[in-house]
Amino acid sequence: MRRLLLVRHAPTxxxxxxxxxxDEALDERGRAAASLLGVSLPAHFELHCSPxxxxxxxxxxAGLIEPRVRPELxxxxxxxxxxxxxxxxxxxxxxxxxxxLADPDACPHGGESLTVFAARVADWLDGxxxxxxxxxxxxxxxxxxxxxxxxxxAPLDAxxxxxxxxxxxxxxxxxxxxxxxxxVNCAPTRSRVTGQARSGEAAGVAGGRP
Length: 210
Prior knowledge:
Blueprint: E1 2-8, H1 13-16, H2 28-34, E2 46-49, H3 53-61, E3 64-65, E4 68-69, H4 86-92, H5 94-102, H6 114-129, E5 133-139, H7 141-152, E6 169-175, E7 178-186, E8 198-199
Parallel strand pairs: 1-5, 2-4, 2-5, 3-8
Antiparallel strand pairs: 1-6, 6-7
């Protein structure tokens, strides 16, 4: 069986302002929140991480070191919308945002369409389904939502009806290559992590209690 915990990165200024992200760092509040993550994770797991700075800093703040950086776990490429708020984009071109929300093949920002993005995440998830043991992936809200859509075999428009809050944990289990959803959008345990940083890469061991 493969046990996979998908963790959205800690909050940033972009998440607080409902903006399309750039490769921003965590702020002080985000680092403090991420420092509490480790106690919510199993005792032994492979650690995977998006290449985005906010994901790598989330792992570091939680005391999780040497993650396996996976480009497949990156957030959707929002092209020219990166760094702008949804409200601003919508005010400037309501037709473009309407098309983006209604048509998964639309790509008005010049980055990835939802179809292309979801296919990237699905390919990575399919590769995980045949593995055994436990893995934790520090990633993005969009990746979590796309993974859930694929795991459930749901239509792609279900993507817009799923929430994944900063630092939330979503857990999937794979048996014989088929995924089941165990929990979704669960807040981490609010208890302070103690001790030294741990590695999820070198010995397959990383942070905290089950």
